[in-house]
Amino acid sequence: MKNWLLILLLLAVPCAAHEVHHTIETTGAVTVHLAYADGKPYAYEAYELYPAGKDIPTQVGRTDAQGRVVFIPGDKRAWRLKAFSTDGHGTDLSFESPAVASPSSPVSQGPNRLSLILFGLSLLLAGFGLVQLRIRKRKTS
Predict the structure, then answer these.
(1) Burial status of residue 47 (CB atoms within 10 A of its CB: 0-12, 13-18, 19 or more)
(2) Strand partners, 33
(3) How far is residue 34's CA from residue 127's CA, in Å, rounded to a whole number?
(4) What is the predicted pLDDT for the residue at 73?
(5) Which residues pair with 47 in a beta bridge?
(6) What would the DSSP string read from start to end of 61-96?
(7) Is 39 helix (H, G, I), strand (E, B) or coil?
(8) Which sign does the torsion angle of CA 40, 43, 47, 52 carry?
């Protein structure tokens, strides 16, 4: 019985490496909409976002389906956005971000690891308790 418990606990350890935590926050973000000359969104194209006067981008990625670049400016107000596509379209835009509200506290962090471990152990103990009750019932009948 102890061997099975040890095996189950050891099998559960690698599962922690596959966790993805998330936090949902309500923040004031700056959204830059990009579009081609014909009005179609500049969708899924590469961009780099730099604070003014810096050579290393703070954010690198792709625009979304509506051609938006979304970021939280923090203390910096002056920005430079370089967007470019493989077919040669692109822009090099310098702008001032409007003042945005400071980030609020996180809305959802999910359960912490200790509570999940305790919950898992309680499920295992409850399962073993039910097995023991069933074994005792069979012996008495």
Answers:
(1) buried
(2) 68
(3) 57
(4) 87
(5) 61, 83
(6) EE--TT-EEEE--TT--EEEEEEE-TTS-EEEEEEE
(7) coil
(8) positive
Which of 103, 83, 84 is closest to 32 using CA atoms?
83
Q: What is the pLDDT of residues 19-29, one digit of tens each?
A: 555 555 656 88
**At what angle are helices 2-12 and 113-140 packed, to 10 degrees?**
150
User: How do residues 37-89 score in pLDDT, each as one tens digit?
Assistant: 888 899 999 999 999 999 999 999 999 999 999 998 888 889 999 999 888 88
- The amino acid occupying position 34 is L
Counting beta carbons within 10 angstroms of the beta carbon of residue 19, is it exposed (0 to 12), middle (13 to 18) or buried (19 or more)? exposed
Which two structure tokens, joined as six digits, stand for 48?
């780099």
